[in-house]
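Lecture notes, unit on protein representations.

Consider one protein chain, 117 amino acids long.
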Amino acid sequence: MPHRALVTKELAVFVGVFAHPLRIRIVEELRAEERDVNALQAALGISHSGVSQHLMVLRSHRLVSERREGRRVFYRLRQPDIAAWLMDATRFLEHESAEAAELRKAIDETRKAWAAK
């Protein structure tokens, strides 16, 4: 397989990991510190099994790693820069039209919340 085809295929798979909003939220929650499933469940407002399923996808693509402490499992980003990369990606959501004012406000609020962690 030519090198460009291989790289673009792998990049498409990598970007596809972020195709679900909850996986992006998990990365955001892990931005500043490691968290266990219960903390992620509370932050995301979804079931324990839902959090575990999304973590499984992130683990399988080597985006998060785990650390066990007794019965608790803590997760952290393997490459914390991925959270900054996602925040930078919010620039592509901005539009110049007046109809996008609500989206721009949401982006600004999200950036502030993420930066505060």
